[in-house]
Amino acid sequence: MQAKAVGLYQGLPISDPASFQDIKVEVAQPQGRDLLVEVLATAVNPIDTKQRQGQVATSDPRILGFDAVGKVLAVGDRVTSIMTDDLVYYAGAVDRPGSDAQYQLVDERLVALAPKNWSVAQTAGLPLTTLTAWEALFEKLPLKAEKQANLGKTVLIVNGAGGVGSIAIQLAKWAGLTVITTTGKPATTAWVKQLGADVVLDYHDDLAKQLQAAGYDSVDHAIILHSTDLYLPLVAPLVRPLGTIVAVVTNQQPLPMDLLKPKSLNFAWEFMFTKANYQLTAMATQGMILARVAELVDQGVLQPTTKRVLEGINATNLKKAHAVVESGQMLGKLVLTAPFDAANN
Amino acid sequence: MQAKAVGLYQGLPISDPASFQDIKVEVAQPQGRDLLVEVLATAVNPIDTKQRQGQVATSDPRILGFDAVGKVLAVGDRVTSIMTDDLVYYAGAVDRPGSDAQYQLVDERLVALAPKNWSVAQTAGLPLTTLTAWEALFEKLPLKAEKQANLGKTVLIVNGAGGVGSIAIQLAKWAGLTVITTTGKPATTAWVKQLGADVVLDYHDDLAKQLQAAGYDSVDHAIILHSTDLYLPLVAPLVRPLGTIVAVVTNQQPLPMDLLKPKSLNFAWEFMFTKANYQLTAMATQGMILARVAELVDQGVLQPTTKRVLEGINATNLKKAHAVVESGQMLGKLVLTAPFDAANN
After folding, report:
1. Percent of residues, chain B, with pLDDT higher than 70
2. ipTM over 0.90
3. What's the pLDDT band for A342 if we cut at 50, 70, 90?
């Protein structure tokens, strides 16, 4: 069957009219553990802009989009956990066609039922950032993924107002951590405080001095959500001996890891797509994490991080969305909702 | 009271007659949690040669030596776990006078009773390397410190024939791991096989090809005990997604950490002196580790790694020992035994 999608044929500047194009693609019936999903909303993340920029010329268009809420239309013969007509949410896999499309195939292990009480626009802001934040906090850091289970422990979250930061702050507070974060202007400071941050440092000024002024000699662990090159040398002195630093942004230059040696620090990469890319058994943990997060949403523990919604999934709106995300100024998440190919706004 | 020691006044080449000097020092009575120990044997580790080379000129002589077996002569008023006349072993702290001395003060938390059945020369080869290997395997890697508790898991130990490698192989085998290690010549290969290594790779040749030829696509984790600069890029491709690489040798250049990102690998520094340098509560784990290792020795689980013994702790023998360790060709451990200031050999 034929379906609409937004595709790209090569990595062009987002200002180029051809950077994204409305296309038609053939949709296959789901096999094995795949679900066929009708996409109702999708979000744009920094990885979309990086993948777009790096796309080599291709005659088969590439379809991006790694956050979706949608309705299950059909299931493969080995699917056990999801049924037709379920409303699901997921980030999916970076090496398969994404959610900037009317219909998408996704492995059931990466999927959970969507929260009951949020709009699709609110829910579409969750999967990629929530999986990243959850894995960073509870798989990469030695912290427990339970309510109030980490009282007395501190975590520094560099760049708390972005997509991952906005959900990481909330998950960390739920888990009982003291959250110290960085922002650069009043609007983002207000936002991270609303999300629960205990201490907010201005990234323009000396972090160590501000931390000390706030009454902390060090933090137990840190999560760097902005330039790893810039922040690793700034964050290493702030983490207590034997602590762990998690990073999500690929370094552009080799890193001065010797700074971490005297304190026997640990450094961990969090890349949400590792599990699916390598088809690890641990893939199934992503569906489980999203199921637990849906519970937290339904219990009223989490507040939405979606801050802007464009109605209509199409090339025009996707270009707008990429331009905003690319600027690095986005607070929380930006979501595109169905109808597919609606009038632009 | 006055005692003999071997001291240095500045970092000189080991061929310089003044690189180490026989000196006399004042010995204080133990306070608080300190023990006063009569040193019966000490070992020379790579950290001794690095500390010697980097020593700035000082009028108060520096005393190195971070491995000792000795008899407790007196205890501080807050000591609870050790008594006068106990035979103890320990690595001690790098920021206090070391064990190249007739008497030494050491915090009881870093100390355990020596194994019963080994000679002091055999036991003196243990503490620093064993603490490093144990912490790397069971604190930095997600492995259990119990007999046969990690069956089916693989660890790559780069440079298995050196001091840390020689004990790491044995501890890993006790814990049930499959051990893959690297060597460069027949003598070291025979040695690591005697210690229990399952697969030995020649570091002169392509590690990935040899690993594959041995029937392994990847290893679960790796411990790099030689140049981190050289081996990190070679080891990263061999470790399975979500695995951990531990390193013990400070990098000389910034490291290409981006190589570890696609697989979301973890990187951990193991520096044995972190706990004592920062006076962490975790200091006490070092005494506990040595107590468990003494049990393993007494149960016949471990074989000695001491491969060479010089009788007499004095400047002449210490120069010989540093020259050997500095050459990087040492198999296992080199130990100096009392009597203090005996005839050279």
Report:
1. 99
2. yes
3. low
Give counts: helices (H), strands (E), chain A. Answer: 10, 15
Looking at beta carbons, which residues of chain A come within 8 Å of B258? 250-251
d(CA A24, CA A10): 17
pLDDT value, residue A150: 98
Domain ranges of chain B: 2-125+275-340, 129-269
Could you tell me the sign of the dihedral formed by the alpha carbons of A301, A307, A309, A313, in that order? Answer: negative
Residue B267 to residue A263, Cβ atoms within 8 A? no
Joined tokens for residue A168: 């990481």
Q: Would you put residue A165 in left (φ > 0), alpha (ψ -120 to 50) or beta?
A: alpha
- Choosing among 3.40.50.1820, 3.40.50.720, 3.80.10.10, 3.30.200.20, the CATH entry for A129-269 is 3.40.50.720
For the stretch B25-65, pLDDT in tens is 999 999 999 999 999 999 999 999 999 999 999 999 999 99
Closest approach of A263 to chain B, Cα-based (Å):
6
- Report the C-alpha gap between B176 and B240 in whole angstroms: 19
Class of the CATH domain delimited by B2-125+275-340: alpha beta
**B263 to A278: CB separation less than 8 angstroms, yes or no:** yes
Collect all residues of chain B within an 8 Å Cβ-Cβ radius of residue A140. 266
Does residue B2 surpass a pLDDT of 70? yes
Nearest to A261 among B241, B262, B269 (CB): B269
Distances in Å between the Cα of A314 and the Cα atoms of A12, A72, A336 are 17, 21, 9
- Find residues 259-298 of chain B whose CB sits inside 8 Å of chain A: 260-271, 274-275, 277-278, 280, 282
